[in-house]
């Protein structure tokens, strides 16, 4: 039975580190957004460990669900639908959220909405401010670097993507070279703010006439620089290394985004994904936009909505509900390499 | 078998030369540090298999599948399993399957890897940004045949 006054979606997200369950009202109001993170456990291991991830999701998903329902002060009978991330991500982790969502959908006769993790990141912005179409989205995280034009609700056009490593992955890998534990983004960002761009690393593909990215060459240049210094018995300034790396990443991200905005007129630019938390990127994007495209509204969700969370999945699910996108049935499976378009 | 490459392009050529020899069920293990050129090698291999999509790093998802070439390519990266086990991932299903498996950081999944494998070790040469030392070692009859065929093509 559909509640006429309030659209209430119970959403699950378990694609990688975080087990998260949320209740979203009318697609934009967060009634609860419980996030149990596994980062502490992963730090010991220097990376996301799928086996550990699955086990932790199992332990946490029921508790998160109870907490999310209690904090939202709703009952299962009040819900409109259940939503869940079905990809991309780690198969074992995704399956935990999917199983939980299916069980609740089945037990309470609720429609099951399958959500693409990237659509979730993009629609995190809807929890902050109303979106006007078309809008541009820059999705940057450990697994993704994509420029997406959202022409209409739930209608995505992939304008450009990384051809090799994701921006966040490059942070984690050079972080390892600097001896920084996973996830390295925050610490590299902090180090970068104390240093200068002295190494002048390459800005890959910045001058090419397309909207794609590449961070593998930057990673190699960084490793080569450190490697050469090691062989000569020199120690390089970690702050300057971090600042130089970060300057290259943000120059390319901002440069390509500006090119996309010049080619496709929009009123809003959404920055989504874990790397949206990066201060260096935020500063450069804000400053460049103010000069080149002052009319465009920049929407960067607060930190808790930039990382993986279920509230964003609920927001995307609400858009799918409104556009009458197909529901899933109980045969829904995880799709680890799911594309947005 | 050992040889050297002098550029990233030539490292990609190694992959291009091996691709036409591959059969369903072949497993290549790629060893080498961060930035050694494992993905560069795989890119050449994938293109020559007829895969048109860009080969992206599989680090985040562990496995990326490409099915638009002559044979399916399963590109795996076990980097993030360093202190864990690959037991529960179901990798065996890929090894027995209809495609070619290329596995980066195989040392982190040693317990689940098949016996018949071609191990390709890529090492950077000192004081050179792009020069690489390749070492190819075959284990098992199928990989030995593959290596013998490759030797003829490489010279």
TrEMBL record, chain B:
Any one GO MF annotation of this record: metal ion binding
Subcellular locations according to the entry: Cytoplasm
Residue ranges of the TM segments: none
Pfam families: TsaE
Record's keyword terms, sorted: ATP-binding, Cytoplasm, Hydrolase, Magnesium, Metal-binding, Nucleotide-binding, tRNA processing
SUPFAM superfamilies for the chain: P-loop containing nucleoside triphosphate hydrolases
InterPro entries: P-loop_NTPase (IPR027417), T6A_TsaE (IPR003442)
GO biological process, one term: tRNA threonylcarbamoyladenosine modification
One Gene Ontology cellular component: cytoplasm
Cited Gene3D superfamilies: P-loop containing nucleotide triphosphate hydrolases (3.40.50.300)
The family this protein is said to belong to: Belongs to the TsaE family.
Protein name listed in UniProt: tRNA threonylcarbamoyladenosine biosynthesis protein TsaE
Organism name: Lapidilactobacillus dextrinicus DSM 20335
């Amino acid at each position: 039975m559909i509640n006429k006054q309030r659209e209430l979606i119970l959403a699950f997200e378990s694609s990688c580190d975080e087990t998260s369950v949320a209740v979203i009202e009318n697609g934009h109001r967060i009634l609860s957004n419980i996030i149990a993170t596994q980062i502490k456990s992963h730090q010991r291991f220097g990376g996301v460990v799928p086996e550990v991830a699955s086990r932790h999701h199992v332990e946490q998903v029921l508790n998160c669900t109870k907490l999310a329902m209690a904090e939202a002060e709703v009952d299962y009978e009040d819900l409109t639908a259940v939503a869940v991330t079905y990809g991309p991500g780690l198969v074992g982790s995704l399956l935990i959220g999917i199983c939980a969502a299916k069980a609740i959908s089945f037990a309470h006769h609720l429609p099951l909405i399958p959500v693409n993790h990237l659509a979730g990141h993009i629609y995190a912005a809807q929890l902050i401010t109303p979106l006007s179409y078309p809008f541009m989205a820059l999705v940057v995280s450990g697994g993704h670097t994509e420029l997406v034009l959202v022409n209409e609700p739930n209608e995505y056009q992939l304008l450009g993507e990384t051809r090799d490593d994701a921006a966040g992955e490059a942070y984690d890998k050079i972080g390892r070279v600097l001896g920084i534990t996973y996830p390295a983004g925050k610490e590299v960002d902090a180090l970068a703010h104390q240093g200068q761009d002295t190494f002048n690393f390459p800005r890959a593909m910045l001058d090419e006439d397309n909207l794609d990215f590449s961070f593998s060459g930057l990673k190699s240049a960084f490793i080569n620089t450190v490697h050469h210094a090691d062989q000569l018995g020199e120690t390089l300034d970690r702050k300057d290394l971090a600042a130089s790396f970060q300057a290259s990443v943000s120059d390319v991200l901002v440069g390509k985004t500006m090119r996309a905005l010049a080619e496709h007129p929009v009123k809003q630019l959404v920055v989504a994904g874990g790397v949206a938390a990066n201060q260096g990127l935020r500063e450069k994007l804000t400053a460049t936009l103010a000069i080149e495209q002052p009319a465009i509204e920049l929407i960067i969700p607060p930190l808790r909505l930039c990382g993986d969370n279920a509230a964003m999945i609920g927001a995307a699910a609400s858009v799918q509900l409104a556009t009458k996108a197909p529901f899933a049935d109980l045969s829904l499976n995880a799709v680890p390499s799911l594309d947005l378009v | 078998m050992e040889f050297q490459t002098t550029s990233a392009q030539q490292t990609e050529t190694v992959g291009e030369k091996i691709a036409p020899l591959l059969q369903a069920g072949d497993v290549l293990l790629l060893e080498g540090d961060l930035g050694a050129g494992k993905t560069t090698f795989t890119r050449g291999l994938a293109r020559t298999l007829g895969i048109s999509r860009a080969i992206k790093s599989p680090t985040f998802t562990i496995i990326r599948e490409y099915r638009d070439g002559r044979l399916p390519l399963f590109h795996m990266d076990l980097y993030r399993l360093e202190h864990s086990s690959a037991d529960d991932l179901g990798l065996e299903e890929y090894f027995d399957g209809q495609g070619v498996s290329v596995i980066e950081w195989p040392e982190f999944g040693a317990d689940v890897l098949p016996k018949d494998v071609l191990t390709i070790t890529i090492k950077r040469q000192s004081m050179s940004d792009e020069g690489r030392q390749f070492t190819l070692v075959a284990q098992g009859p199928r990989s030995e045949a593959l290596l013998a065929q490759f030797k003829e093509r490489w010279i």
